[in-house]
């Protein structure tokens, strides 16, 4: 394998730097040590030579001095002939000349000059005096030994003199040499310290450079790793790798090549993802409308059926077929037909909520997969129908195609499902069958596949229609159920709504109030109830028997939450002339807790006018002391479900006792509803409940019967 240039350089550079630095430091150290060595060894050599000359001088002069003594002694004793003496003299003259040279060279030496100039001069002077005197003494010795002795005695003085000088010089020289040695050592040490500092600085420099290079390499490697992980996990076509693009532009070596390769790889990958997306689009989406096609819908259906069975909610599959589309296609051509399909799809798309799926399943056929809120099957069916009807009404409009207007309607078949018992193919087939039923039934309508759902839906639709006209047709009635105190005296009545249906007879509120609430019909119905009840109150005021009775009217949550509720009540009171302090409004917890602040405000406004409030069905909801304390209530009504079992069920008895205690604590009157037996009444009385409503006393009755009953009391 061939090593990359940049990487190699990056790894070699630190090594090379270390090598160069070591060589430089080595050369510098060697050079400085060598020059110091040469310098000090030259000086030392010179010093040694001076010492050597000095010792030769000492030796030669001592020996010569001895010979002079011997010659002079021999001459005095006449042991030498004249010739011998002359020879000795000549020899001594020669030797003295040699020694003089030695003295001159000593005097010329640096060491001696540095040591003590005076001593050297003294040495030269006393030696030259000595030489002169010795020559004179040996010259005259043959002729006049006594004069020779005199000269010799003077020479001896000079000898002694320069002996003193040479002694001093020897000492000085030794000291000087030792000093030089010391200096040389300290210079060596200095050089070592210098070399050490240089090496340290060099090492730090190299370390910094190595660190910088390593950092650069590691940041490149990190960028590459990041890019690789992005490439492995990202599936987006917008895959930006700015660090790698920068690396490619700034690095020419291996890193540049890696960056180029990565970018190339990225581009390939993006192309592949785009191709896959395009493939996916072709396989799962409709080319004309861009909507999911039948295949994708089938997959989603399978998934939704699984999810439905897990969380037990319903899904609805709506099959939409544009009515008489074929005619438009035939008359205006396919292109116009396509245009129409696109604007049709756009219209529906806007009607769906997030999470619902619209698909094109055929030429002019679409399907919608709806996720319905958790709840009963009937509620799910209603919601699906609501959406379908909404689509029918919104889609039914004039479409402009190529300058021509076309009125379109749609027929919708619905299949409701909540588990995986049916395959996605079966679900689609059944929705389609339902669509045919809608077509057969006359187009522009909605049909469920399941006939029982359809029956139920039809029944509700019928009921809703009938309920709508019930007010106009004066089919609503009010019944009155009297309320009693502990002495069985009537203290008031509750107005209860009935529907006098032409075919079905008297319909219970339990059967139509929920539908009235759902459809909003409860608002006009409630208004009618209030007007009727207040008219009765106004009549009661004229009669001695009924003047003190209070009339309770039920108010539904939706009605109470109307912003104009307070105004409406006050207006009715005003119109009918009923006394506000005889009117009691029965609210449920759901009406109050939706927006407790608002409820308190409304209740206070009406209470200021004398209207009183009762909390209906108490004990079935939150029944918290916390909110009860804040509400301006006059009465709480123990729900009949507790009263029913009060004798048998100790738990219910305890609940009732608690409610009564709560009422007493808050100074709120407590009334029990659904009292059917004397036993129940007695127990309630023993717990402290002093007001009752129930079959034991009176059933809900039409006004004439109610009045008749009152008269018998
Ligand atoms: P609610 O307000 O709790 O009315 C009491 C219900 O208990 C009435 O049923 C009444 O006939 C029934 N009842 C009274 N005494 C006894 C008894 O001793 N035994 C048994 N088993 N039942 C007894 P009803 O008239 O069918 O009304 C049912 C519900 O419909 C009412 O419950 C109330 O929530 C609602 N409702 C009735 N009229 C109206 C109205 O005008 N407006 C509104 N918003 N709701 C109404
Ligand atoms: Mg009530
Ligand atoms: Mg009740």
Structural account:
The chain is α/β, with parallel strands linked by helices and 713 residues long. The chain has four domains: 206 residues, Four Helix Bundle (Hemerythrin (Met), subunit A), CATH 1.20.120; 67 residues; 156 residues, Alpha-Beta Plaits (2-Layer Sandwich); 236 residues, EAL domain (TIM Barrel). It has 24 helices and 16 strands. The strands form three sheets. An eight-stranded mixed beta barrel has the order 8-9-11-12-13-14-15-16, surrounded by four helices. It has a five-stranded mixed beta sheet with strand order 2-3-1-6-7, with helices on both faces. α1 packs antiparallel against α2 and α8 packs across α12. It is elongated. The relative contact order is 0.04. The mean pLDDT is 87. It binds ligand C2E and magnesium ion (2 copies). The site of ligand C2E has 24 residues, from β9, α14, α15 and β13.
Counting structural domains, the number is 4
CATH fold type of the largest domain:
TIM Barrel
What is the 3D form? elongated
Number of helices: 24
Q: What ranges have pLDDT less than 50 throughout 5 or more consecutive residues?
A: none
Gyration radius from CA atoms, angstroms: 65 Å
Number of strand elements: 16
């Amino acid at each position: 394998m061939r090593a990359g240039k940049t990487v190699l350089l990056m790894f070699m550079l630190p090594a090379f730097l270390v090598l160069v630095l070591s060589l430089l430091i080595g050369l510098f150290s060697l050079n400085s040590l060598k020059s110091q060595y040469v310098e000090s060894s030259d000086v030392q050599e010179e010093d040694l030579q001076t010492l050597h000359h000095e010792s030769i001088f000492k030796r030669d002069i001592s020996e010569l001095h001895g010979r002079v003594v011997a010659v002079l002694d021999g001459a005095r004793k006449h042991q030498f002939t004249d010739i011998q003496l002359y020879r000795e003299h000549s020899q001594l003259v020669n030797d003295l000349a040699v020694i003089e040279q030695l003295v001159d060279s000593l005097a010329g030496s640096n060491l001696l000059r540095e040591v003590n100039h005076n001593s050297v001069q003294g040495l030269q002077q006393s030696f030259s005096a000595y030489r002169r005197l010795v020559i004179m003494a040996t010259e005259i010795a043959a002729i006049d030994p006594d004069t020779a002795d005199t000269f010799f005695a003077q020479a001896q003085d000079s000898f002694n003199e320069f002996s003193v000088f040479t002694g001093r010089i020897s000492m000085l020289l030794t000291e000087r040499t030792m000093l030089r040695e010391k200096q040389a050592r300290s210079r060596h040490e200095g050089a070592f310290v210098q070399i050490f500092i240089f090496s340290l600085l060099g090492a730090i420099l190299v370390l910094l450079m190595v660190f910088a290079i390593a950092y650069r390499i590691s940041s490149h490697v990190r960028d590459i790793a990041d890019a690789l992980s992005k490439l492995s996990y990202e599936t987006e076509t917008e895959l930006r790798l700015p660090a790698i693009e920068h690396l490619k532009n700034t690095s020419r070596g291996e890193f540049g090549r890696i960056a180029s390769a990565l970018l190339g790889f990225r581009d390939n990958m993006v192309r592949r993802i785009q191709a896959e997306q395009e493939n996916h689009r072709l396989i799962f989406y409709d080319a004309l409308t861009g909507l999911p096609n039948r295949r994708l819908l089938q997959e989603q259906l399978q998934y939704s059926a699984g999810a439905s069975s897990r969380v037990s909610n319903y899904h609805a599959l709506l099959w939409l077929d544009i009515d008489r589309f074929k005619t438009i296609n035939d008359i205006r051509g396919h292109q116009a037909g396509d245009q129409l399909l696109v604007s049709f799809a756009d219209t529906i798309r806007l009607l769906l909520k997030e999470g619902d799926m619209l698909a094109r399943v055929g030429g002019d056929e679409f399907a919608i997969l709806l996720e319905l809120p958790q709840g009963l099957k009937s509620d799910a069916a209603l919601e699906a129908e609501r959406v379908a009807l909404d689509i029918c009404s919104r889609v039914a409009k004039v479409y402009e195609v190529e300058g021509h207007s076309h009125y379109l309607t749609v027929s919708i078949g619905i299949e409701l499902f909540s588990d995986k018992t049916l395959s996605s193919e079966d679900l689609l087939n059944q929705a389609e069958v339902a669509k045919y039923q809608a077509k057969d039934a006359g187009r522009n309508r909605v049909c469920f596949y399941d006939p029982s759902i359809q029956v139920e839906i039809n029944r509700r639709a019928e009921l809703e229609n009938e309920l709508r006209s019930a007010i106009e047709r004066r089919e609503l009635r009010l019944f009155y159920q009297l309320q009693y105190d502990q002495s069985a005296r009537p203290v008031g009545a509750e107005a209860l709504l009935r529907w006098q249906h032409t075919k079905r007879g008297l319909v219970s509120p339990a059967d139509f109030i929920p539908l009235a609430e759902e459809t909003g019909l409860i608002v006009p119905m409630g208004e009618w109830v209030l007007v009727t009840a207040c008219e009765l109150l106004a009549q009661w005021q004229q009669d001695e028997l009924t003047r003190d009775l209070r009339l309770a009217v039920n108010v539904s949550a939706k009605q109470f939450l109307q912003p104009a509720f307070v105004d409406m009540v006050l207006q009715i009171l005003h119109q009918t002339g009923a006394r506000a302090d005889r009117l009691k409004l029965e609210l449920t917890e759901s009406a109050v807790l939706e927006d407790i602040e608002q409820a308190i405000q409304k209740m206070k406004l009406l209470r200021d006018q004398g209207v009183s409030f009762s909390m209906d069905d108490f004990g079935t909801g939150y029944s918290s002391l916390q909110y009860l304390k804040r509400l301006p209530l006059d009465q709480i009504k123990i729900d009949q479900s507790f009263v029913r079992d009060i004798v048998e069920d100790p738990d219910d008895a305890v609940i009732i006792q608690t409610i009564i205690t709560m009422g007493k604590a808050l100074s709120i009157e407590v009334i029990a509803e659904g009292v059917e037996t004397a036993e129940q009444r007695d127990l309630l009385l023993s717990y402290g409940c002093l007001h009752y409503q129930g079959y034991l006393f009176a059933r809900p009755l039409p006004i004439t019967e109610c009045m008749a009953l009152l008269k018998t009391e």
